[in-house]
Amino acid sequence: MNEILKTHTSFELIIDNCSEAILLVNRKGEIEYANSSAKLMFNYRNFIGINVSELIPERFRKKHSIIVDSFFQFPSKRKMGDGINLYALKSNGTEFPVEIGINFYEEYGVKKVILSIIDISERVNYELKLKEYYGKLQLSLKETQYQKRLLQQSQEKYKSIVMNMDDVYYRTDLDQIIVYISPSVLRYYGADSIDDVIGLNVVDTFYFNPNDRVMLLEALKAGKGRISNYEIVLKDKLNKPVNFATTSHFVYDENGKICGVEGILRDITEKKNLERIQQQNADKIAQAYEHISDSINYAKTIQLSMLAKHNDLKEYFTDYFVLFEPKDNISGDFYYANQIADVVYFAVGDCTGHGVPGALITMLAINTLHNVIRKNSEPAEILEKLRLKIKEAFSGMGQYNLNGLDIALCAYYKNDSKIIFSGAFLPLLLIRNNDLTVYEPTRNPVGSYLNEIPFESKTIKVEPADKLYLFSDGYHDQFDKENDRKMGKKSFYRLLKDSSRFEMDEQLLLLHTHFYTRKKDKEQTDDVTIMGVQI
User: Fold this and answer.
1) What is the mean pLDDT of the chain?
2) Percentage of the residues of the chain whose pLDDT score is greater than 90
3) Backbone angles phi, psi at 440, to 5 degrees
4) Cβ neighbours of residue 63 under 8 Å, at least 6 residues apart?
5) Which one in 3, 59, 107, 376 has a CA-CA gap of 20 to 30 Å to 128?
6) Structure pTM?
7) CB 405 within 8 A of CB 366
8) Which of 71, 505, 528 minimizes the C-alpha distance to 314?
9) What local confidence, expressed as pLDDT, does residue 292 receive?
10) How far apart are CA 178 and CA 202, in angstroms?
11) Which residues are CB-contacts of 78 (< 8 A; sequence separation ≥ 6)?
């Protein structure tokens, strides 16, 4: 009786701890047995009496019924799903991909089916973790006669499952001799039958590195006699390494002393190969990112070198400030200043896009603006020439491509105390004696446009202490953290007016603080540029 009990307990533990979901199904499709992995996989607490069709998505049930009928008519061991995708259904309605092994089993003349189900989501998604699929099964038998009959009935059932499982079940004694091993080992070891393997030393026979056996035993001791998904390297019939994950535990005798080790080995070669490929790809991406970052940093250096120099701005104006906050490492905004004879040209531009695309257009715009200014004096004429150059540069992209820029351009005639302004969608603000005047731009960009109109110049007599402001739309279009709303032009103009009573460096600090206090940790939506100059 003790031998039968030990045998049943071993088989029961093997099947219940099996990584595959095991279901025993009768001719009506009703589930008569399910191991712990099946309950975990399908999220059922109790399978008994459930029809197996409930585990199949609705669209597959009709076809499944035909397959089941065919199998009971012509029973044989087979694998479902060759060449097609099989899906199963959890209790909450979630679908997941599976492989299903199906085997015939006859109990007291009654035909039944053993289903071996593997969740292959990890193979499909690469990143799903191995599920923990081992638990304890405690038998509560009330009568000795019932125990004996149940053990006798279930012995062949569990033995059949072990004989057909894909994972390798093994058991060794304390001398590391193989006491039992499942037939699936023959896929890896060159023997005609498991009888040729039983009795061999497990270290000499399978371990690629003999010291790994010592480490496994130490891991078992540290894990209080049990380990799960412990990775080891074994060797195949050609002495080549094969990666396995094992869930193993100590075996105890009647006196509670350790008498061996048993467990299940799962081939994880495919998983390890995927991990290596992923690591290689990650290394390549990191290397590419480093190259790109280096290139972007170099582009940033070039872009900054093309912007107006602060020493020049000090010479051109009584006082000034520039708030320049790119959204990314490099900017689609720019600020410009250059003196030709007694005329100081200064501008703020907002090119299409931000980041790398915007920065490329800023470099083109600054270089073109610099060349055009040398040959033209009127800002409106300069913008017309600039528009032609931009259109020529992007002529190969279609008549109405969106590449271009918005700009506010001023020519400051020091000797005549006047400003001539021309703008493409960007205005000029003048604050004099705490009064704010807005000089509106032409409603056209510098570049291709469906309805192009000529740019216009506006002449403004300036006085000492006048303050002029050029800016892109990034500041007033920024969303705030609290209400998820843009600041808007009116509020922005009011802020400029209220802060204009301070010195220019103080106004810069106030604008900078207000922007980041309002935005907080919300993502910056665009490049931000404000140039303020005092006559």
Assistant:
1) 83
2) 36
3) -75, 150
4) none
5) 59
6) 0.52
7) no
8) 505
9) 59
10) 6
11) 71, 101, 102, 103
Sheet strands (E) in 17-167: 21-25, 31-34, 78-80, 86-89, 95-107, 110-119
pLDDT of residue 131: 41
E-strand ranges in 108-257 read: 110-119, 168-173, 178-181, 226-235, 241-252
β-bridge mates for residue 251, sequence order: 260
State yes or no: pLDDT of 148 exceeds 60. Answer: no
Backbone angles phi, psi at 128, to 5 degrees: -70, 140
Render 467-524 in DSSP notation, one character per residue: EEEEE-STTTTPBPTTT--B--HHHHHHHHHHHTTS-HHHHHHHHHHHHHHHHTTSPP
Joined tokens for residue 51: 């029809």
Residue 93: strand, helix, or coil: coil
Q: Which two tokens stand for residue 55?
A: 């585990």
Write out the two tokens for 175. 């001398």
Return the closest-CA partner of residue 18 out of 224, 185, 169, 225. Answer: 169
Sorted by sequence, the CB contacts under 8 Å of residue 195 that are 6+ apart come out as none
Q: How far apart are CA 231 and CA 243, in angstroms?
A: 7
DSSP 488-500: -HHHHHHHHHHHT
Could you give the domains of the chain? 1-161 (3.30.450.20), 167-267 (3.30.450.20), 307-534 (3.60.40.10)
List the beta bridge partners of residue 102: 78, 115
Cα-based distances in Å from 279 to 230, 268, 275, 350: 21, 16, 6, 41
Q: What is the pLDDT of residues 518-529, one digit of tens each?
A: 999 999 999 999
Question: Confidence band (pLDDT; 50, 70, 90) for 172?
Answer: very high
The 10 Å Cβ neighbour count of residue 257 is 9
Instruction: Report the SS3 class of residue 247.
Output: strand
For 23, residues 6+ apart whose C-beta sits below 8 A from its C-beta are 31, 33, 34, 38, 47, 52, 114, 115, 117
Phi, psi dihedrals of residue 254, rounded to the nearest 5°: -65, -20
Contact present, 347 and 364 (Cβ < 8 Å): no
Angle at 453 between CA 452 and CA 456, to 5 degrees: 140
